[in-house]
Write a structure and sequence with these properties.
This protein is of the alpha+beta class and about 100 residues long. It has three helices and two strands, in the order H-E-E-H-H. It starts with 8 loop residues before the first helix and ends with a helix.
Amino acid sequence: MNENKEKREFAQQLEQIAATLSQAVKSNEGRAFILIGTDIKDNKDGGSENVQGVIAVGGNGEQVIKGLANFFTEKQTAPLADEAMKLATLKKLSRLLGNE
């Protein structure tokens, strides 16, 4: 997130949640979390979107990986994971080609 922009209330709330979760997993090797939140505001003047996001990961790395693996394979979330990976691939290609 661009630190020059004032954080909107939603992003602030997400950061508070991440801090709470970090404390909850701090002393337990069997716990982990992944928190992803975005707040997208369209500019009224037709300009590009104003996106603020919070991404936080905490706890045991092995547990994080297992959680991600479950996210990628569960019936409800696998389609989201597939679309996210397609978009991530396009973004990486765009960076490699110097288009971003």
